[in-house]
Amino acid sequence: MTAPLTSDLLAGRRLLITGVITKDSIAWHVAARAQEAGAEVLLTGFGRPRRLTERAAKQLPQPADVLELDVNKAEDLAAVAAEIDARWDGRLDGVLHAIAFAPEDALGGNFLETPPESAKTAFETSAFSLKALAAALLPALAKSEHGGSVVGLDFDAQVAWPIYDWMGVAKAALEATSRYLARYAGPHGVRSNLISAGPLGTIAARGIPGFNLLADNWDTAAPLGWDTADPTPTADAALFLLSPLARAISGEILHVDGGVHAAGPVGAAGADAQG
Question: 221: which residues sit within 8 A by CB, 6+ positions away?
Answer without folding.
Answer: 258, 260, 263, 264, 265, 266, 267
